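Appendix B, example 12.
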Amino acid sequence: MILDHLKTKSTYKKDRTSEKPLRSILKTVSWRIIGTIDTVVISWVLTGQIETALAIGSVELVTKMILYFAHERVWNLIPFGK
């Protein structure tokens, strides 16, 4: 059963029906809001400067959304655990 599942090739069309890209985008945005708040608070505590903390948070907000979305889509192509 597991070997049969591993042999099944995933296609983009099949992948899209298991979890649509819009769902991945919404998960990405919601997670980044939480992650960015965490980063800003930690940066503020470490630097003592809210401006620096907000600058760090704004940069990581964009870069980590892109990385998470790519990570999510790659994992959606992997049949393991589906």
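The mean pLDDT is 83. The chain is about 85% helix and 0% strand.
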